[in-house]
Amino acid sequence: MPAVNRVFAAQLAGLPVFGPDGESIGKARDVVVGLRLDQQPPRVLGLVVELGTRRRVFVPMLRVTAIDASAVTLATGSVNMRHFHQRPHEVLVLGQLVDAPARIAATDARVAVVDAAMEPTRTRDWVLARLAVRERGGRLALGRRRSTLRVLPWSEVAGLGLADLTGQPQGAGRLLMLFDTMRAVDVAATLRDLPVKRRHEVADAMDDERLADVLEELPEEDQKELLAYLPEERAARVLEVMSPDDAADLLGELAPADKNRLLDLMEPAESAPVKRLLTYSAHTAGGLMTPEPVVLPPDATVAEALAHIRNPELPSPLASMVFVCRPPTETPTGRYVGCVHFQRLLRDPPAELVASAVDTDLPTLAPAAPLAEVTRYFAAYNLACGPVVDADDHLVGAVTVDDVLDHLLPEDWRETGLRDRTGGDTEEVIDRA
Question: How does DSSP assign 188-247, residue by residue?
């Protein structure tokens, strides 16, 4: 995204939204933020976009590549066309925050929120960093109302909690506000300690993407229980968002009838790689791999390769290596040429072709390679990610070191190894909930 220091929500409203090829998507109507329990600025989750059919959909902020005075541009990738549904911990900036009464924390002066400014962080997230407020009350001598507009940091304005803005009780919403500041693995550990009823309330309130992240970190039995609780259509949507290898692992543990029913409910483009993974044994390179590594043709440039591995949604192990293959570049690819390590990309000129930096000496893994062989491979070559190539020299996926460790650790490691990582604040919220 181009460098933008600050974007006010009122300026954003009504801007046209375009896809990566310039096609018209709709118009921006609001900004969705997730409130927090501490005084840190809330994270901007995404935009509410109104389509030409007047349907309003949610677009995650990570899909936004550019914002300027005339338009919003989205990145390549699918956008969920389902009707926008606001979650309990979410607040609409224009719909709920603007015009809300508040106080200046230092003086207790009464103010009204006039606008709110989004600012990018170093991690490429956006936060609602500042509020434009107007003081309320007080008149000048001639009867005119004093109207002092001030732009203050979020932390200096009080009275904008969840209950203040929505009137909702803070049960599940309060937990979600806390979870927004935590890693998915720590949310999963906390979720396991909740009563089943509250766990289900939190799952209902989470968006599909966040629930998918948390589901991937839960032990197998908890995954199955939570998936069984969800309505089948939503369960299929969550599986679509999960990493294909994690979705395949979970579906592989279900009864055949349940597995096939969920696969049928998934979008064909999302279910196809999962079905392919299910054909491999779980403890082989094929069963461990993800079918979505970074794959580029030989005529791609180093600059293009770096742009791909900068994607904040790409897991770190997958970002450590780019695979070069003849078209098609979707797995299973054309002929596998070799790989390029990210350190090499950092050293080469941006205009160089990736073909000139390819490592053709690194051995590959066969899909049927057992877990012991995969483990020795990673230890021998000091890798975070390794290519899986079939007998016809097609890249079919990549194994990452985190998936290897997941299968090497005891089956109950998620239950015993993360119990103390969530901290006292979480326990306090659970007690109150």
Answer: HHHHHTS-HHHHHHHHHHS-HHHHHHHHHHS-HHHHHHHHHHS-HHHHHHHHHHS-HHHH
Place of tokens 């997958």: 318
The number of residues in the chain equals 433
**Averages of pLDDT over each 10 residues, the chain, 433 residues:** 73 90 90 79 91 88 86 78 78 88 89 91 85 72 60 89 57 66 82 83 87 91 94 94 92 94 93 93 92 95 93 88 95 96 94 95 96 95 95 96 86 57 42 37
CATH code of the domain made up of 1-168: 2.30.30.240
Tokens of 342: 């990210």
Q: Which CATH class is domain 295-408?
A: alpha beta
Domain 184-281 coded CATH 1.25.60.10: yes
Domain boundaries, given as residue ranges, for the chain: 1-168, 184-281, 295-408
pTM over 0.70: no
